[in-house]
Amino acid sequence: MLDLKLMQKNPEIVRESLKKRGSKIDVQEFTDLDDTRRKLIAEVEALKAEKNAVGPEIAKRKKAGKDASDLLEKMGEVSQRTKLLDTELSKIEAAQNNWMMTVPNIPHESVPVGASEDDNPVLRYWGEKPELNFAPKEHWEIGTALGGLDFECAAKLTGSRFSVSYGWCARLERALAQLMLDTQTSMHGYTEVVPPFMVNRKSMTGTGQLPKFEEDLFKLDGTDYFLIPTAEVPLTNIYADEVVDEARLPIKFCAHTPCFRSEAGSYGKDTKGLIRQHQFHKVEMVNFAHPDKSYEALENMTAAAEKILQLLNIHYRVIALCTGDMGFGAAKTYDIEVWLPGQDAYREISSCSNCGDFQARRANIKFQPADSKKKQFVHTLNGSGLAVGRCLVAVIENYQQADGSLVIPEALKPYMGGLEKVESE
User: Which of 15, 16, 143, 340 could form a disulfide with 149 if both were Cys (CB 3.0 to 4.6 A apart)?
Assistant: First the structure.
């Protein structure tokens, strides 16, 4: 959520931000509501002042034994009018708050202006594309042929956009998650967390999934619980409505969890394979950073995510998301896109974002500066370190062999019991 005072004093900043994002939200709606709110407050204050001024006169008349019925009647009308205005004011403030909840974050000044993913600049590349002397296959072909992936069984058990993994494939996915957790905790200072996989409405609202994106979520009937779309939600809300010690910043959490997304609006896209499923696993990183150091933290978080692909020796690139392609709560985002030979394309495998104080305002997460009595909002960051399923896709496609077998990357062999190659039986 944006700062209310910013909206009131500098609506043009927000108007320009929305224009850069390609948003159709009209700032005038807020301005009109705020004008009405101010007028209502002014009238309420005037009525209260009138009541305070007449009060002594009523007391004076009563003490002198004089009739004060006219003033009492007038004050009754004033009280009735005040109640009506208070009710109207509550409605206006609620409408104003609802409007604020739908407004995306203001992009950082360093974010490139653009309309879509086509305007995202590539910042750097790492590694080289594998030189394959055969026509590479896609991961779902390889995984199925080697008996590790079964999409038909998943469709029978649940429906489309699910999968079942067996044997080497199940272990390979587990190995990837373990490599990610070990790397982020031992090398980059993250504390591993096992959070709930269901959260309440308040938590979803705190990180920005609600109210705007409810159609993308899975809600449990008869409850106000939602399956998490990412561990960002429970991890960020750990400090909701709390004040953390400045000396503890930055606080860095990571978690390996299943993620559940309805993928509303994406039907017809990536219908085969593991790229876009309703259920997938991800190792998520969340940082609570000091406002003065959050953009430095974003660079470090992105490097931590990149490290996994470097350990796996898989080619990737890093791009900066432009204003029109950036997520709702982000002030700045880097995407890591891994090379997939079978698809002959780069695909997103991690997105690392600095949300500034946007989520902290919604979730009420503050810190107490040592040199000030005034509490401040922390800055929150989140990033995939990495998406486990997509990393599995990258390993399968980049390490496939001409004979249909699959070589296990060196970094994963300790987690695979020394297995070096997967071959068809």
Answer: 143
What's the pLDDT score for residue 268?
A: 65
Please, what are the domains in the chain?
Answer: 4-101 (1.10.287.40), 117-422 (3.30.930.10)
Q: pLDDT tens for residues 243-264?
A: 999 999 999 999 999 999 997 6
List, as own/partner pairs, every contact residues 210-216 make where C-beta atoms lie below 8 angstroms and the sequence separation is at least 24, other chains included.
Answer: 211/98, 211/101, 211/102, 212/101, 212/102, 212/328, 213/328, 215/262, 215/264, 216/261, 216/262, 216/263, 216/264
**CA torsion angle 238 202 204 87 (round to 10):** -140
Q: Is residue 71 very low, low, confident or very high in pLDDT (cuts 50, 70, 90)?
A: confident
Contacts of 69 (CB under 8 A, 6+ apart): none
- Inter-residue contact 116 to 325 (CB < 8 Å): yes
pLDDT confidence of residue 30: 96
d(CA 209, CA 203) in angstroms, rounded, equals 9
Question: Is residue 150 within 8 Å of residue 144, measured between CB atoms?
Answer: yes
Q: What was the pLDDT predicted at 48?
A: 87
